TrEMBL record:
It comes from Candidatus Stercoripulliclostridium merdipullorum. PROSITE patterns: PROLINE_PEPTIDASE. The keyword Nucleotide-binding does not apply. Residues 129-326 form the Peptidase M24 domain. Belongs to the peptidase M24B family. InterPro entries: Creatin/AminoP/Spt16_N, Creatinase/aminopeptidase-like, Creatinase_N, Pept_M24, Peptidase_M24B, Peptidase_M24B_aminopep-P_CS. This is M24 family metallopeptidase.
């Protein structure tokens, strides 16, 4: 955190997820100023009472007219006395960038440092993620018995949404429910396609609890799967097991990805693995760093990432198995408890 304030720098925060990270209060209609001496949260006076109850010590609430939050912060004396201003280069809007630059002070993109800060989860954050994954595991167990001939992808997606909401959660991302040939699409959208005997099934969903996400994918089959599907399922499970045993903090994202990718390569199946091995998650479902062939960043201890190898045969079927794990110095702690053997309904 101290590195954010090097050489008298202050940092302006406008991104909704980062506002929540630093304040603990979910309100996208706000702005924050981070300084070495203390932080300032600026929003409409109508939310002051609720926001103040959530704000940690060291954060002062600043009243402002609606829509003038950034301007109000830029006029604070603590900013006027600063030597430079850090901004979120990966999300800042041009109009806001121009306002920040209009102060006449040097500006610096600090998004990389902000992302690195969020990559390492605190014990409090881990508790929220564990809770969210627990809900996801429970909902999976409730939904599997609903997979019967004639049910549609949309109906199963709706059942997932309802079950998560009943447990006080919301969707971490758009739920993927795919039957038959639709499972070959890694990001399939639920449709009116109904489940038929012999169909493969992909369920990819997650709950968001207390502002933190979970994520899980399981592949199943209604009735006896084809020999090819069963064999490929074994290859996906093997790749994931190798990755789960091999990854640890201190490795680059590319090195982690290569564990699973090389497993597919040995079987001549690498061309059918069309995405990266995984991604960080927390407040957002996709955070940095990631597990991909191009990721040079080192995964820090305390980061939470998905491990989700998959194989996709266009127009026929797809298989993906996804767990979320906490990277540690001596390995990875798997937070996902749902079974991973090939479930035949």
């Amino acid at each position: 955190m101290e590195s954010l304030f090097e050489k008298g720098r202050v940092v302006v925060i406008l991104d909704p997820d980062r506002l929540f990270y630093f304040s603990g209060y979910r309100n996208p209609d706000a702005a924050m100023l981070l300084t070495e001496a203390g932080n300032f949260y600026c929003s409409d006076a109508r939310v002051k009472e609720e926001a103040s109850a959530c704000l940690p010590d060291g954060i002062a609430f600043v009243d402002a007219d609606r829509g003038n939050y950034l301007e109000t912060l830029l006029n604070l004396s603590v900013l006027q006395k600063s030597s430079r201003i850090g901004y979120e280069g990966d999300t800042v809007k041009m109009r806001d960038y121009l306002k920040i630059g209009g102060t006449g002070k040097p500006t610096e993109d600090v998004s990389v440092a902000l992302n690195a800060l969020r990559a390492v989860k605190s014990k409090r954050e881990l508790r929220f993620i564990v809770k969210a994954q627990g809900v996801t595991d429970t909902v999976f167990g409730e939904v599997v018995p609903l997979l019967r001939e004639g049910v549609s992808e949309r109906e199963i997606a709706a059942a997932i949404h309802t079950a998560i909401a009943q447990r006080g959660g919301e969707l971490a991302f758009d739920t993927i429910v795919a039957f038959g040939e639709n499972t070959a699409k890694p990001h399939a959208h639920p449709s009116d396609r109904v489940l038929r005997y012999g169909d493969p099934v992909t369920l990819d969903f997650g709950a968001k609890i207390d502002g933190y996400c979970s994520d899980m994918t399981r592949s199943l089959c209604l009735g006896t799967p084809s020999a090819r599907y069963a064999a490929w399922y074994g290859y996906v499970l093997q790749a994931q097991e190798l990755a789960l045993k091999g990854v640890r903090a201190g490795m680059t994202g590319a090195a982690c990805d290569e564990i699973a990718r090389s497993s597919f390569r040995k079987e001549g199946l690498e061309p059918y693995f069309t995405h990266s091995l995984g991604h960080s998650l927390g407040i957002a479902i996709h955070e940095s760093p990631v597990l991909s062939p191009r990721e040079t960043k080192v995964i820090p201890a305390g980061a939470v990432l998905s491990v989700e190898p998959g194989l996709y045969l266009p127009g026929v079927f797809g298989i993906r198995i996804e767990d979320i794990v906490v990277f540690e110095n001596n390995g990875a702690d798997n937070l996902t408890k749902s079974p991973k053997h090939l479930i035949i309904l």
